[in-house]
Amino acid sequence: MATTDIRFKRVNDEYQSVRNAQDELFEKVDTFEEALLGLNERVSEINEKLDAIIRHLDVPYKPPAGFVKE
Q1: Residue 29: left if φ>0, alpha if ψ -120 to 50, beta else—which one?
Q2: Backbone torsion region of residue 55, taken as left when φ is above 0, otherwise alpha when ψ lies between -120 and 50, otherwise beta
Q3: Using one digit for the tens of pLDDT, what is the confidence trace for 9-50?
């Protein structure tokens, strides 16, 4: 049939389009995950430094208790 090749090409193009979109999405998710992990590490380092400064300066500091009424 003359249209078989055309149909096959159309289906293949649609498949490749979906795959390309998925690949782009996966790359972005991986990039965001790396950025988030990096931010978490930096926040942890900053918290450690802040705790050290608080101890060094003998700051009377009481961590927040969340939503508990005082």
Answers
A1: alpha
A2: alpha
A3: 999 999 999 999 999 999 999 999 999 999 999 999 999 999
